[in-house]
Structure formats: structure tokens, C-alpha cells
Amino acid sequence: MNVYYMINWFFLCSLLGYLLECVVLTYENRTPVLNRGFGHGPFCIIYGFGAIGANFLLSPLADSTVKLYMAAMIMATVMELVTARAMIRLFGSFWWDYSMKKFNYKGIICLESSLGWGLLGIVYFRFLNGFLMHLTGFVPQRFEKRLAVTLVLFYLTDFLWCLQHQIRTRGEEQKQVIGRLSVRP
């Protein structure tokens, strides 16, 4: 397994995470949800990082369903918490809201999702991981590097553009608030 294979596999996992998010939220909201990533591309990279983390940290537990469930639940919940904190620090908000769900912490994490992450960990190791590795292997070696570099460049460009847009929008909102405050009698 080379670095280009891993990058392509990472983006495949990120794409599947994006699709999973769209399906779940479309079901919950009863209206189509098509944009679940930070950028414009169809990637939720937290799922790519989750898959990498699962492969490195949880593989030793893959034979024990209960241990795997608990570890996947904890790992994904911590990832969700850390990601939300980083997003709050960078953008002033995060892209999901569990505040209407029971047993939530500041709308960032909740018991329902944590239980789902444990189940997803089992599904990932029992069904998806091998399939995704096999599917990534279909990329011909002569295109592996090109695809990986293209995906990274696309994502970085999209991320930086969206980051700049978020910062600009946030700055404009702050100027409007300051402008409203200075007009008060």
C-alpha cells in the first residue's frame, strides 16, 4: 500500500461519509440535503480521518464485537467533539446541531449519535473496509498518483476558498454589528 493508494482510499471513505450524511439528514429533515461537507465537493473528511483512525487504533479489537463497538463509539464521539471545537474556533460555529436530541452536550455530541458511531464501526470493519480497499485497488497504478494529487489539490483549493469566504463573511457580520452599535442614541 503506497501513499497514493491511501489518499485515494481516504477520499473514497470521505465520499461515503458525505453520502451517509446526506441520506441520514434527508431522512431526518424529510427534505433533500445535498451539501454536508465544508466545501463544495462531495467529501466529509472527518470520515476519511475516522477510517484511518479506525484502521490504526481499532483493528486489534475487530474480532470482539463489544470492544469494537465501545471503542468505535468513543473514538468517533471524541473526533466529533474535537472537530466541533476546532470549527467553533475557526468559524464561530459548527455544521451540525444535536441540541434538540436527548442527552446532548452543547449540541455538539449526543448519545443517539454516539450509539450510531459504535454501530458504524462494526459495519465498517465487518463489511466496508475490505470492500473499500478492494474498490480503491481498481484504480490503475499509472493513474493512482494523478488521482491522489488531483483530489488533494481539489480539496485544498476548495477548502481554502471556503475558509476565505467564511472569514470574509464573519468580518462583514462583525462590521454590521459594530455599525448598528455605533448608531444607537
What does this structure look like?
The chain is mainly alpha-helical. Helix content is 74%, strand content 2%. The protein has one domain (3-183). It has a two-stranded antiparallel sheet. A hairpin with a 3-residue loop joins strand 1 and strand 2. The longest helix has 43 residues, at 141-183. It is globular. It starts with a helix and ends with a helix. The model has no long low-confidence stretch (mean pLDDT 88).
Characteristics:
two-stranded antiparallel ribbon; 5 helices; 185 residues; globular; mainly alpha
At a glance:
The chain has five helices and two strands.
Summarize the helix and strand pattern as letters.
HHHEEHH
Protein structure class: mainly alpha
Global mean pLDDT: 88
Count of helical segments?
5
Low-confidence stretches: none
Tell me about the largest β-sheet. Answer: 2 strands, antiparallel
Cα distance spanning the termini: 67 Å
What order do the helices and strands come in, and which of them pair?
Layout: H1 3-29, H2 45-58, H3 65-91, E1 104-105, E2 109-110, H4 111-136, H5 141-183
Antiparallel strand pairs: 1-2
Helix pairs in contact: 1-2, 1-4, 1-5, 2-3, 3-4
